[in-house]
């Protein structure tokens, strides 16, 4: 099966009825960037930057980050790099003193960055400077309300001004996207979409927060269910908001890389998936074998169901088509 999947590498991810799907890769470590072209992906949909803290007490300064990001862009030779700003939190990072004290409902991700503005400044300036060398998109994690988007935009404008004065080049039109991974952001995704260039759904956290179920606690893993109707309704809302505002919606949580959910997501209208490189060709094989015009009405009926078990049954039928 591996060998036959490999043959799909250079084939476009187009459904039977001609819908083009973008398949991107999630990258946790710069050393893994070679996998992007290796599986024929169209870019990096999620470049996690928590590695910056690995085996050290402080973040690298602006200059070092700039060099790391520039090297990443060079390695991608023209493919887009979606650089997610620092997402420190309970389940992230290796800097025990910093991260162990951050609860999932605490000062994590963009909240932390907006408080530690010096640290955020170094990262945003480094990312801006790197954007002079290739297609970079910024992605802001853990947004919970529109005010955070305005704050980040304000900081970006200030750093752009600084760089202009210093004569350092950057892309003034750098796209800025937001992660939708908190119920409040999903419920208000239309207002977020109207102030962002793209949305990316982080299902790992969205499921955790919607279902009040710790994503790393094995004792409640039976409750951690992507097919819970509450989760599906939020996903439908987010995709709807994107369509209404003409803003692209991607998904970079684990759900996007699980072949069990590929047809469900296609039927809901998702057209950009980002996942670990190892999952990409199998997901592509399902996309190629799917006729969305035949799936769509079944998915819509599935979305009206209330019982996760019934939903799972309906999905199994769709996946067998
Ligand atoms: C997510 O929450 O789905 C996500 C992609 O971000 P992370 O797994 O890094 O929290
Ligand atoms: Mg997350």
From TrEMBL:
Enzyme class: transferase
E.C. numbers: 2.7.3.9
A single GO molecular function term of this UniProt record: metal ion binding
Record's GO cellular component terms: cytoplasm
Reactions the enzyme catalyzes: L-histidyl-[protein] + phosphoenolpyruvate = N(pros)-phospho-L-histidyl-[protein] + pyruvate
Residues at which Mg(2+) binds: 181, 205
Cofactor(s) it depends on: Mg(2+)
GO biological process: phosphoenolpyruvate-dependent sugar phosphotransferase system
Entry binding sites for phosphoenolpyruvate: 48, 84, 204-205, 215
Domain PEP-utilising enzyme C-terminal: 3-289
Subcellular localization: Cytoplasm
Keywords in alphabetical order: Coiled coil, Cytoplasm, Kinase, Magnesium, Metal-binding, Phosphotransferase system, Pyruvate, Sugar transport, Transferase, Transport
Catalytic site positions: 252
Function: General (non sugar-specific) component of the phosphoenolpyruvate-dependent sugar phosphotransferase system (sugar PTS). This major carbohydrate active-transport system catalyzes the phosphorylation of incoming sugar substrates concomitantly with their translocation across the cell membrane. Enzyme I transfers the phosphoryl group from phosphoenolpyruvate (PEP) to the phosphoryl carrier protein (HPr).
Annotated family: Belongs to the PEP-utilizing enzyme family.
Designated name of the protein: Phosphoenolpyruvate-protein phosphotransferase
The organism's taxonomic lineage, starting at the top: Bacteria, Pseudomonadati, Pseudomonadota, Gammaproteobacteria, Thiohalomonadales
Region of the whole protein represented: 254 to 574 of 574
């Amino acid at each position: 099966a591996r060998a036959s999947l490999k043959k799909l590498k250079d084939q476009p991810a187009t459904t039977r009825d001609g819908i083009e799907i973008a398949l991107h890769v999630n990258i946790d470590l710069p050393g893994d960037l070679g996998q992007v072209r290796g599986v024929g992906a169209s870019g990096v949909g999620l470049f996690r930057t928590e590695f910056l803290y690995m085996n050290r007490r402080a973040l690298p300064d602006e200059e070092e980050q700039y060099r790391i990001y520039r090297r990443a862009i060079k390695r991608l030779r023209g493919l887009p790099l979606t650089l997610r700003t620092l997402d420190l939190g309970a389940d992230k990072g290796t800097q025990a003193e910093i991260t162990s004290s951050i609860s999932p409902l605490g000062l994590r991700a963009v909240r932390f960055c907006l408080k530690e503005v010096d640290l955020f400044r170094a990262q945003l300036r480094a990312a801006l400077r790197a954007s002079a060398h290739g297609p970079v998109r910024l992605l802001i994690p853990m947004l919970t309300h529109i005010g955070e988007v305005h704050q980040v935009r304000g900081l970006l404008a200030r750093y752009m001004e600084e760089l202009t004065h210093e004569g350092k080049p950057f892309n003034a039109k750098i796209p800025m996207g937001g992660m939708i991974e908190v119920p409040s952001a999903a419920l208000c995704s239309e207002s977020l979409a109207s102030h962002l260039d793209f949305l990316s759904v982080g299902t790992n956290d969205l499921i955790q927060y919607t279902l009040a179920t710790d994503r790393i606690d094995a004792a409640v893993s039976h409750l951690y269910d992507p097919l819970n109707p509450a989760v599906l309704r939020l996903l439908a809302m987010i995709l709807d908001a994107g369509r209404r505002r003409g803003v692209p919606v991607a998904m970079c949580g684990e759900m996007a890389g699980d072949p069990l959910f590929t047809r469900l997501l296609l039927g809901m209208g998702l057209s950009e998936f980002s996942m670990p490189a190892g999952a990409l060709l199998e997901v592509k094989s399902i996309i190629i074998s799917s006729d969305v015009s035949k799936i769509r009405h079944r998915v819509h009926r599935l979305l009206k169901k209330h019982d996760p078990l019934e939903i799972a049954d309906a999905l199994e039928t769709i996946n067998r088509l």
